Structure formats: structure tokens, C-alpha cells
Model the fold of this input.
Amino acid sequence: MNLALTGEAVIAATQMLRPGGRLLSTTPGTPAHPAVTTVMGTTDLRPCTLDTLAAHVLDGTLPEPATRTYVLRDAARAYLDLAHEHTRGKIVVIVDTETAR
Done:
């Protein structure tokens, strides 16, 4: 769980995850990355908020943002989907085709 890092430091932190691991980030400006789930948008933090988030992370019930991933050769399709469909979550274009899902 990231409470302080921003920008590229968040991406660097993903290097410490086990294979298939996830990093939950609560900081504004968190860059898009397949292993990072960003949870923001609330100014109503309570003492139990972080405990609740951590519990959801540990039991696997924290919803993952809807993300579409495209390989580089499909970048034009990604742009068309972004322009013409209601997109929710992130659209990611992967250069390395072995990591695309």
C-alpha cells in the first residue's frame, strides 16, 4: 500500500512486488501501471479508512479498475475506443506483447 510516493517512485516500488502482486496507491498523480490500483477521490478519511483498505487488499475484495490493455500494433484501436466509447478505468498500450492481456 502506497501512502506517500508519487510519479516514477510508485513505478519503482512495483519492482518489490512478488510476481502477480498488486500495489494499492492513494496518492494523486500515480502513473498508470498494470500492477498499480489507484484509490483516490475521497476527502472523508477516517481512522479506520486505511485498515478497511488493507483488509480489502488482503482478502482480495478490493475492486480493480476496469482496464483495457492493447499491444502496440493495436494502438489505433485503443485510441478509437477511447474516442468513441464510454471508457472506465485505464487504457494501456503495451510495447512488449508478452505482457499484454
